[in-house]
């Protein structure tokens, strides 16, 4: 079953396209964890695929990744100083309170270390 839904969602037409967008956004955020990424950089990453997507579609996948069913990732946003309304995004860096396995897939969840 696809995690995508909504009144306009049509699985045969939309599923593979949305999955490709999600993989593009998730891949960039995880490769550059902790680094701020602009919409233009997301679009540039998308251009490497056969069918590139614009920021409107990619920003929807950023929002999806924040949802529990897509991993509930801590994706932060901030306004770029002097950027004339430009925002940038990043996957929160892993701090000392968290651990993750190098083998964990991008959709995997971070776990808090237990106090002993």
Task: Please provide a written account of the structure.
- With 116 residues, the protein is of the alpha+beta class.
- The chain has a domain at 13-93: Winged helix-like DNA-binding domain superfamily/Winged helix DNA-binding domain (Arc Repressor Mutant, subunit A, Orthogonal Bundle), CATH 1.10.10.10.
- It is 35% helix and 12% strand.
- The protein has 3 helices and 4 strands; from the N terminus they run αααββββ.
- It has helices at 11-31, 39-46, 55-66; strands at residues 75-79, 87-91, 98-99, 111-112.
- It has a two-stranded antiparallel sheet with strand order 1-2. The protein has a two-stranded antiparallel ribbon with strand order 3-4.
- Strand 1 and strand 2 form a beta hairpin.
- Helix 1 (11-31) packs across helix 3 (55-66).
- The longest helix has 21 residues, at 11-31.
- It is globular, with a radius of gyration of 15 Å.
- Mean pLDDT is 84; it is low at 97-116.
């Amino acid at each position: 079953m696809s995690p995508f839904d909504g009144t306009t969602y049509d699985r045969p037409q939309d599923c593979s396209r949305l999955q490709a967008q999600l993989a593009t956004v998730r891949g960039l955020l995880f490769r550059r964890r902790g680094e701020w990424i602009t919409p233009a950089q997301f679009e540039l990453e998308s251009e490497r695929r056969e069918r590139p997507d614009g920021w409107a579609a990619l920003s929807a996948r950023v929002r999806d990744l924040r949802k529990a069913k897509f991993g509930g990732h801590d994706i932060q946003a901030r306004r770029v100083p002097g950027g004339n309304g430009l925002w940038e995004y990043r996957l929160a860096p892993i701090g000392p309170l968290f651990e993750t396995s190098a083998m964990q897939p991008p959709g995997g969840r971070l776990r808090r270390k237990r106090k002993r």
